[in-house]
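sorry for the late reply, my laptop died twice this morning and i had to redo everyting from scratch. anyway the thing you sent over, i finally got around to it. pasting the sequence first so we're on the same page, its 279 residues, then the predicted structure underneath. double check i copied it right bc i was rushing
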Amino acid sequence: MLQLVDFVFRNRFFLVFVLLEVLSVWLIVRNNSYWGATYFNTSNYYVAKTLTLSNSAKEYTKLGEINADLASENARLHAQLAALSQSKPTDAPAGYVPDSVFASRFTYTVAKVVDNETTKTNNVITIDKGTAHGIKPGMGVISATGVVGKVRFCSENYSVITSILHSQFMVSSRLIRSNEIGYAKWSGKDPNVIDLIDVSKYTKIFKGDSAVTSNQNSVFPPGIMVGKVESVTVHPDQTFYNIVLRLATDFRNLSYVYVVQNHQLGEQQQLKSRTEELK
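ok and here's the structure:
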């Protein structure tokens, strides 16, 4: 207390000066309409800037929660889109009415990427969902922008995914404009591009055309983006194009994925196995 009194006594002239300055400013603002309006406009501006910075800081701390909510919403929209596309397929002949169970056979589970490889020849991805969440080996995995891979191994709370950036992974893909079907297969070099093989050179291919998952696929719903045609070449002694696709998914910035469950996959595989046995 004595120190405070000593401080006030030693700085009494300066403190009186500051008090008089504050009083003068208050009297000017109080009794002059122009300076009063200027003061309130300026103070409101800085208060608004402070509140904006404060809200931005709060929103930044909640980005993880916001991203998780968006991922869940995307999963719901993916399910609705898949059901709609299967209930009213654009390439179906007149009179074709798909079974309602068939149309709604795909469901989606949101998962967060906890480990991701992009620089190896055979890359894998680890996610934070496993058998406890209904994940099983063989399920397809997509992102908000396109195909990611297929579940390979599962533990109770984690799963390892064979990435599309894997030399042994292929996905049946269809070019939208030409309606040609081929297989997307990674060459093991650039994680941003992938080859589309087995597309006949006797069909016109358009640069910039989109490649999506085809109907000849039991793991992924049809119409999921794989990539866009970046270059098309062909050698005279070959019967197939050399097509390079720019991948739709940016694997270097992969945060959330959607594990796709085909509820009729077991039935399809069982029939296929019986067919192979008869051959």
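The chain has a mean pLDDT of 78.
thats about all i looked at so far, will dig more tmrw
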